[in-house]
């Protein structure tokens, strides 16, 4: 008896009816059609979801008096990740994260639409999360520095494969930036 898997509304059902060899061939054709349809439809190949900005500021110990200490500056940090989608092409996205800081507080974080490179037969979804850190950092010269961590989850898809990678960056209120290693899932 042949078993066929049926997808309906993103749910998987098993059909144990015996359809013979012709049913198996029809299943293969149906899967091939779905892959082809997904490749040529009008969905964007690169889609960004999640947090795009953080209004307001993160202060050391959430003490708003740090807003008036130090001179405010603007900074831009670049985050890039790509996936080699075969021998001839790479699908990638490059973000330019803009933010303000004054040596103690950090805020007004904006993540504009990324610069991207599309790859044939691949799509990319990126989820961004902006997380103000509850820890207050310190250096020898500065005992109160707030920080924000931004997480970028990259989901690369093709008709036959999917890959998940995570990158993160920690922005400190003194202008220092720490970029984490790429995590594989």
Descriptive overview:
- The chain has 185 residues and is mostly beta strands.
- The chain folds into two domains: 4-40, no CATH class; 46-184, no CATH class.
- It has one helix spanning 20-40; strands at residues 4-8, 11-15, 46-50, 53-58, 73-84, 90-101, 106-110, 115-117, 122-132, 147-158, 162-172, 177-179, 183-184.
- Strands 3, 9, 10, 11, 12 and 13 form a six-stranded mixed sheet that branches. Strands 4, 5, 6, 7 and 8 form a five-stranded antiparallel sheet that branches. The chain has a two-stranded antiparallel sheet with strand order 1-2.
- A hairpin with a 2-residue loop joins strand 1 (4-8) and strand 2.
- The longest helix is centred in the N-terminal third of the chain and has 21 residues, at 20-40.
- The protein is elongated and about 55 Å long.
- The model is unreliable at 1-19 (pLDDT under 50).
Low-confidence parts: 1-19
Provide the β-strand percentage band. over 45%
Q: Structural class from helices and strands?
A: mainly beta
Query: What does the largest sheet look like?
Result: 6 strands, mixed
Count all strands and give the number.
13
**Proportion of helical residues:** 10-25%
Termini separation: 36 Å
Short description:
With 185 residues, the chain is mainly beta. The chain has one helix at 20-40, and strands at residues 4-8, 11-15, 46-50, 53-58, 73-84, 90-101, 106-110, 115-117, 122-132, 147-158, 162-172, 177-179, 183-184. The strands form 3 sheets. Strands 3, 9, 10, 11, 12 and 13 form a 6-stranded mixed sheet that branches.
